[in-house]
Amino acid sequence: MKKQLAVFASGTGTNFEAIARACAEGAIPADVAVMVCDKPGAAVIEKAARYGVETFVFSPKDYPSKSAFEAEIVKVLDAKKVDLVCLAGYMRIVGETLLGAYEGRIINIHPSLLPSFKGAHAVEDAVAYGVKVYGITIHWVNADLDGGRIIAQRAFDYDGNDPAEVHRIGQKIEHALYIETINKLIQ
Ligand code: GAR
Fold first, then answer.
1. What residues line ligand 1, using a CB cutoff of 6 Å?
2. What is the pTM for the complete model shown?
């Protein structure tokens, strides 16, 4: 049986699409069993439909607590027998309910060379700081925000002040690095 992936996203979903395409084309020997999204209306939802990937889309405000919506997510992941959860622009801190069930099987991609520039505005913060070497990190997810053990990193030089350009350069690297890393982890 192929390994089963879950991809979590909140926005555009270019990483989701790269992973879904790699699975569909056999470049990753796994299925995307479900795409989990906390933003109804996010562009990633249409991308999931295009790839025939089932979705679990929810609004956190419809639940009394983080624990309540994470309990629903855990049910979905269990039902799909998910082996690996890939956070791909899921802009929400993973709480104790999801960690309790899946810690050690959740990875995240982050647009900086951790431990520098944690948080939701990593690229903007790095540009404002004036760094000259940027990068991408994939790490295990634990209770420390962007603080879990590092699995893979890739750096690139950039000597300018345009966050959009850094995002553009970084995105290509993200897609390749995520596919390589998932392949290593599921072997
Ligand atoms: C990616 O650049 C990812 O590294 C970042 O969100 C973007 C999602 O893009 N994640 C974080 O900043 C997490 N702190 P995508 O929706 O096109 O895949």
1. 9, 11-15, 88-89, 109-111, 120, 122, 174
2. 0.98
